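4.2 Preliminary Data

To establish feasibility before requesting continued support, the project team ran the inverse folding procedure on a target of 422 residues. The structure was first converted into the token representation described in Section 3, and no sequence information of any kind was made available to the design step. The complete token record follows.
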């Protein structure tokens, strides 16, 4: 029994010490939507935009509050002007006045509606920040994948050129090839090594940039569980043309600001109406107690807030014109992104249609021919350079495809909202 208990404790301790590293290895494999979630939760700009929404909600509470009453208290002793035989003993006087402003219900309703419109504008700005950041995180993630693919390509080219260089060195040592061939091969190996090192540094730079957008919320040794070959799933073109100008956060924000400007016009016009204050006064002295009620009315007789009303009208016109232009501009940005998507898709189809495979086969044939002495080093290197250019263009085409899709999702504010805590 004691022996079984000992083994149980030993296994428990080994599991406790080994499970964190295992979990760390599992958590280091992140999908792109998980990277977006972590970035949206940790980025300071998103948190600041969320605070703007909370501030706007607090503004609605302030706008909905009723005006506070004003209480005035006065007290003081009487002073004799004649003898006590005539006036009698002195006393204290006390007066309490309550002034309650009665707010115009039209102006109150307009003020509350304007504050609620500010909340809508703040939420739209919040959505814009999140959409921009989510698109940046997606593009940066695929950029990291692009740099990793480029590094793998340069590594393969380096291994290929280095293998050819070793064969040339053997032939030179046997006297079957000129010394000049080895010098040329050494130069190509050095160039391949430089390109490989530059590609490796590009991977590190892309990784740091992605971590910067996530505010360090992801581990330093993370890996992305995605590929440049990921399919792009978007709604049909006609549906997107209708959807984008309606749901774009910038357009929604301008619509909310236009509503706020309209309510401000109503508020300024309602402020021209007379303002009423209800008064109540309680007066007490040695002999009498009196209660008086009444009202005071402020009449806008000389100045009827013409300047404030005109300012609100012109501000509403400015926002309306900006909204119309911005809606048109968003539509054109979407058309441009859609064309970029189509161009990138055609380029990907072109490379996948056999061009990339033919270039790889040409390199293998040139390599075999050079091995058997049927082709020179220059022909092999030319074929290898052609393959490198085609592979590089193929990777860039896939990256452009993902970038165009991310831009369309940004314009329509499409990001993993279900993973966020509002």
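Position-by-position output of the design step:
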């Amino acid at each position: 029994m004691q022996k079984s208990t000992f083994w149980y404790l030993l296994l428990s301790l080994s599991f406790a010490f080994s499970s964190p590293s295992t979990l760390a290895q599992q958590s280091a494999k992140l999908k792109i939507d998980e990277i977006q979630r972590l970035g949206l939760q940790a980025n300071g700009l998103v948190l600041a935009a969320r605070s703007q929404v909370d501030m706007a909600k607090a503004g609605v509470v302030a706008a909905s509050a009723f005006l506070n009453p004003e209480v005035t208290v006065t007290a003081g002793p009487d002073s004799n002007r004649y003898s006590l035989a005539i006036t009698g003993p002195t006393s204290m006087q006390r007066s309490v006045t309550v002034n309650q402003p009665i707010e115009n219900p039209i102006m109150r309703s307009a003020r509350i509606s304007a504050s609620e419109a500010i909340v809508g504008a703040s939420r739209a700005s919040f959505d814009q920040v999140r959409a921009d950041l989510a698109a940046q995180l997606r593009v940066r993630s695929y950029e990291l994948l692009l740099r990793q693919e480029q590094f793998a390509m340069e590594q393969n080219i380096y291994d290929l050129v280095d293998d050819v260089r070793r064969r040339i060195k053997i032939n030179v040592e046997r006297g079957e090839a000129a010394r000049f061939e080895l010098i040329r091969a050494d130069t190509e190996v050095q160039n391949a090594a430089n390109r490989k090192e530059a590609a490796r540094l590009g991977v590190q730079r892309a990784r740091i940039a992605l971590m910067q957008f996530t505010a360090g919320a992801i581990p330093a040794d993370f890996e992305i569980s995605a590929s440049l070959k990921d399919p792009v799933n978007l709604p049909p073109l006609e549906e997107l043309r209708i959807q984008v100008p309606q749901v774009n956060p910038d357009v929604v924000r301008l619509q909310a600001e236009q509503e706020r400007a309209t309510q401000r016009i109503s508020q300024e016009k309602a402020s021209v109406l007379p303002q009423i204050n209800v008064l109540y006064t309680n007066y007490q002295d040695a002999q009498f107690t009196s209660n008086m009620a009444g009202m005071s009315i402020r009449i806008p007789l000389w100045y009827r807030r013409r300047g404030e009303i005109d300012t609100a009208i012109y501000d509403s016109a400015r926002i309306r014109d900006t909204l119309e232009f911005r809606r048109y501009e968003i539509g054109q940005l979407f058309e441009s992104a859609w064309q970029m998507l189509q161009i990138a898709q055609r380029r990907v189809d072109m490379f996948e249609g056999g061009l990339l495979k033919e270039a790889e086969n040409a390199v293998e044939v040139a390599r075999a021919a050079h091995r058997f002495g049927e082709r020179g080093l220059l022909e092999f290197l030319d074929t290898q350079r052609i393959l490198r250019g085609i592979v590089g263009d193929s990777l860039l085409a896939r990256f452009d495809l993902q970038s165009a899709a991310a831009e369309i999702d940004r314009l329509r504010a499409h990001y993993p909202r279900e993973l966020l805590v509002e």
